[in-house]
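Section 5.1 Outputs to date
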Amino acid sequence: MFSKLLYYLIIYPSSFLPMRVLYLFTDVLYLILRFVFPYRRNVIRGNLERSFPSKTTRELRIIERDYLRHFTDLLAEGVKNLSVSESELNKRFQVINPEIMDDLYKANKSVVLVSGHYNNWEWLITSQQLLFRHKAVGIGTPLSNKFWDKKINARRARFGMDIVNSKNVREYFAKTSCPIATLTLSDQSPGESSKSYWMDFLNQPTAVLFGTEMLANKFDHAVVFFHTKKVKRGHYKMHLQLITKTPRKMAWGEITERHTKLLEEIIQEAPEYWLWSHKRWKREIPKDLAQLRVVQRKKFEEIRRTFS
């Protein structure tokens, strides 16, 4: 009941306010989260210190400050996302080089779009079907709160994206005949260390989700990395980079290494726009990592041969 009251009486009505008004609220929230009730300060500082060991304390504090400013902007933009119109979304979220996706569509090639929680990913989810000719698909795990899961997914899908439960991906793809573009955010902490791809990321051993690479190989989809740049407050431009049209010709781990390194590069260039308050490095390195990699590679090659 509380969730419904919060949504219908406060959050959803607030989404109809102009962005400049919503930013006024989050300007105040920024001050509260920075000076009154510090938001996940230990998590943010720990992540930054490990990721940028050569930076001074002052440099790290500047990134922390700028991150909190950006994070509160995202909260305002997330509220606006619930009711933002198609025309306003098209003005605020644009693609610099859509010809990358246009060429793949003309070739009848489905795509896995991959990046991380960098800049405004919620506006991309909502606008993806408006940006590309491919059928927009998002894969997710249902939220524990059924009310919020239903409402958020309905708002995300209102311009045409299909939200697919991660357990039903194979069935969905099997019945889809048109080219699709599946959005994946690969920087979440994996559920299991032993099923992760381990590599160096931001100066530390990191468990990386292998789903993007497996998805591309299973269904022979092209892989395109995207970089969302913040032009100014509330305005973003997205740059696309083709990783491969032929995933089955790439070695085990190659796709994962490439999209993770590309994400690392944009984080290093402008770190304040990544989700530093997320507990990204909570998985322990497997003691038998070398043997695990041998087993993972063998399983991958066996699976890929069945698809080729």
